Amino acid sequence: MNARDALLSRACGQNWPFGPLLAALNLPATAAVLDIGAGEGELLKNLRRRGHTGPLVGLDVHPGPGVQSGGAEALLFADAHFDATLLVRTLLHVTNPQRAVAQAIRVLNPGGMLVVAAQGAAHLAGFWALFDPPAAESADTLTERLLVPWPCERLDLVIPAVLEPEMVRLLAASYDLPAVNVSAALPDRLHLAVFRLIC
Fold first, then answer.
1. Where exactly are the structural domains of the chain?
2. What pTM, to 2 d.p., does this model score?
3. Which fold has domain 3-124+135-162+190-198?
4. 181 exposed, middle or buried (CB, 10 Å; 0-12, 13-18, 19+)?
5. CA 123, 58, 174, 169 torsion: positive or negative?
6. DSSP 76-102
7. Are 101 and 87 in contact (CB under 8 A)?
8. Are 185 and 160 contacting, i.e. CB atoms less than 8 angstroms apart?
9. How far is 177 from 58, CA to CA, in rounded Å?
10. Structure confidence by residue, pLDDT tens digits, 87-104
């Protein structure tokens, strides 16, 4: 788990974002799952710890141990190969998002599930207000716009979090923001927008 996710997991008392996401998806235990942009494979490890027995494949351009090397825009799998394909906090980091989604759909079995997740507009809103950042389009809005050709169901996972002063300092450093003096715990929210398409 990366340092920021570990920090946010402490702040909300859950394994962020994997615990809330996997609970919401409720994937069948035997489903063949492809995690595109898997990084260190943390989501798949969490899925296995939840009792998943089906095949799990992670793919990333900079793969960690147990994750295959490869890009989202050219999946080297046969058509109709997986029951679920996941693009979690990944779609906005690929060169051609539309092609990545088309590829993720191509490798799905009939009735399979595509899941695309991005940080929502409410994610750490209290924290970001400390820095008065310039207004920008949120990751969930950008993602939703990219998914227009594919009618998806949207699910917003919003989890209360409490950022202790030291957490605020560490979080600011993780974003390369200037240090900010906070003397009391900061109530905030974590927000993951999940877009789901059954093919």
1. 3-124+135-162+190-198
2. 0.92
3. Rossmann fold (3.40.50)
4. exposed
5. positive
6. -S-SS-EEEEEEES-GGGSS-HHHHHH
7. yes
8. no
9. 32
10. 999 999 999 999 999 999
